[in-house]
Every structure is written in C-alpha cells, then in structure tokens.
Amino acid sequence: MNVVDRLIEEHVLRTAEYVELLKLADNQDVVAQLADEAVRLRKKNYGNKVFTRGLIEFTNYCKNNCYYCGIRRGNQHARRYRLTKDEILACCVNGYELGFRTFVLQGGEDPFYTDEKMVDIIGTIKKKYPDCALTLSIGEKSYESYKAYKEAGADRFLLRHETATEEHYRMLHPVEMSLDNRKKCLYELKELGYQVGAGFMVGSPGQTIDNLAEDLMFLQKLKPQMVGIGPFIPHHETQFAAEPAGSVDMTLYLLSIIRIMLPHVLLPATTALGTLDPKGRERGLSVGANVVMPNLSPVKNRKQYELYDNKICTGEEAAECRGCLGNRVASVGYELVNERGDYVESL
Ligand code: SAM
C-alpha cells in the first residue's frame, strides 16, 4: 500500500513514510485526495461547525529570546504593555456578548504575572463565566504552577513544541532554552488533565522535510487535543528578518495530514495563514481546520503584540472581527458557532 493510502487507512506512519509523504506536497492529486479525506473526517466528527476562541493577548513582555519572535526579550524597539485584571475582564465581557465561549489568555513569559496573580485572574474569569472554557498560552512553567492554574479552573493549554528536532531547536532558540523541557511541559499538562495543544511553524529558518517528519511523529506520539500550525513570517527586528516566509501551500498540506492523523483534533486556521494569504483562513478551513481565533485584545494594544510583520486584524474592534470571520467561515460552507467547542474523543 502506498503512503497516502496507508495514512488514510491507518492514521499512523513511520518517520521515513512521513518524509515520503511530505515530498509529495507538489503532487496536486495527492494534495486533493488528502484534503478530501481531511474534510470528510472533520465533517464526520464536527459537522459544519467552526469553533471560535477569543484571543486575549494580555502581555508582550517576555523573558525569553526566541530568535524568530518579535516580542522576544532582546527586541529593544518593542513597545511593551501589560493588561490589568480589569482590562482582561473587560475583554471577556465584550467577548461573551459577542458569543465567545472560549477565552484564550496568551502572552510572553512575563514574571510580572506570578502564579498568585494568574490563579486570581483564572478563578475570577471561571466564576463569572462558568459556561466558558479558559485556555492558557503562557509558556513553560513548573508542574506545580500548571497544577495551580488547573485547580483554579483552566481547561486547556497551548504550548507549541516549535520543532521536535534538537538540532533545529538550537537554530531557533538561545542556549538557555531546552527542547526537552518544552516536551516535558506538554506531557505534564496532559497528565494534569488539560486539553493540550502542541504545534510548530511551517518554514521556520533551517527547517527540513526531515524536521517536519519528526514534528508529525511527535504529534503522533503525544496525541494532543489541539494542534496549532502556521507559516513562519519574518519580523524586521529579529536575526531572521531577511529569511523567506513559510509556504502557505505546505501549511495547508500539513493541516490535511494532521486532521487525518488525529481525526478529532481541534485545528485552527491561524492568523499567520491569513496574513500571508488574504484567503488563508478560508483555505485552511477547506482542507481540515475547524477553529478560528479572532482577537479580543483592546485595539489600543493590538499592534504591540507583534510576533511577525504585517499581522492582520490589528485595527478592528472585536465585534467587527467576529462579523468578518463569520462571513469568511460561511463563504466556504461552514458555520461559526457560539459553543465551548471541547475536544470530543468520539461523538
Ligand atoms: N509565550 C508563549 C509560548 O511560548 O508558548 C505563547 C506566546 S508565543 C509568542 C505564540 C507562538 O507564536 C509561538 O508558539 C510561535 O510558534 C509563534 N510565533 C512567534 N514568532 C513567530 C513568527 N515570526 N512567525 C510565525 N509565528 C510565530
């Protein structure tokens, strides 16, 4: 059986087979076959629904110095901001009215938000909105911190592994950061009962097909409930400023593959995809993605959370974003729904 049929039949491949599959990314028949199967699976498991997550980018301070990221510590030109608890809650009020039933608190790794502060914020949001899911995306913490956030009510955690290959990880991160620790965090989050999201950038500097195959193997082993992938996009204040952006087509191909590997996965059509291609998110939804993550952050701070250049949706109010995305989702035959949109093993 060829690798395409084997992925469709068995949902699992070996590393060398993923390499073979990734080399077929230019074969339009294969691309279409995998996209069809991915869409069939997402419809079987989630119907026409697209889940929406209200993204609250609450701090762009970061103690890390990831070479690719616009808000890394070493970027002296970033205008830093932090949202107060009241500002975060105001985002939730706005989001709830607009129909959001998942809030995502995302930020740089900012020691200002101690565990005590995070537990207070998480607890307050969950008390005010018991019918909503709360997702955290605040980087690498200790097991005890993750446990405290979970006990305070956090439901999900997004922590892209970025790359599963040590050599490639070293090209993207300074020496004080560790891939082993990042992977360990993901396993600990799973153990604590979070719905966990891993993922990576497509086309990050130095990335090879072998690296991508390792990323898929890592996802196959971890079995996360969510996977976030999007193209790498250069930021002018990083050492990768002159590197080319990742490929939209390769990102779309990978979305289909990941949907087939993990048929129930919650898979966003990311803002980065929409940044490189005006129809990128619609195209993502048409090849297996089932989540969108519009911005709920205060408009005054949107541009400051600049991970990469030319990020879209930094000027509109949340209501406009919600409306715009609803239309985009409908334009490709899906429906943006006001639900928590939890991972369901078998529906
Ligand atoms: N600090 C948290 C963490 O480390 O998981 C969450 C925030 S971090 C900025 C969110 C994600 O942005 C990263 O996981 C990375 O994949 C993505 N990102 C950063 N720089 C990027 C770039 N230049 N292009 C595309 N995505 C980027």
Draw up the topology in text:
Elements: H1 3-10, H2 15-22, H3 28-46, E1 49-52, E2 54-59, H4 85-97, E3 102-107, H5 115-128, E4 133-137, H6 143-152, E5 156-158, H7 166-172, H8 179-191, E6 195-202, H9 209-222, E7 226-231, H10 248-261, H11 271-276, H12 280-285, E8 291-292, H13 299-302, H14 318-331, E9 335-337
Parallel strand pairs: 1-8, 1-9, 2-3, 3-4, 4-5, 5-6, 6-7
Helix pairs in contact: 2-9, 3-10, 5-6
The chain binds S-adenosylmethionine.
S-adenosylmethionine is lined by residues 68-69, 106, 108-109, 137-139, 159-160, 162, 201, 230, 232-233, 235, 272, 307-308.
What would you report as the Rg, rounded to the nearest angstrom?
19 Å
- Identify low-pLDDT runs: none
User: What percent strand?
Assistant: 5-15%
Percentage of residues assigned to helices? 40-55%
Number of domain modules: 1
Bound small molecules, deduplicated: S-adenosylmethionine
What structural class do the secondary elements suggest?
alpha/beta
CATH superfamily: Aldolase class I
CATH topology: TIM Barrel
How do the helices and strands follow one another from N- to C-terminus? HHHEEHEHEHEHHEHEHHHEHHE
First CA to last CA: what distance? 30 Å
State the CATH class. Alpha Beta
Q: What best-fitting shape do the alpha-carbon axes yield?
A: globular
Let me know the average pLDDT: 97
Q: Find the count of extended strands (DSSP E, 2+ residues).
A: 9
Please work out how many helical segments DSSP would assign. 14
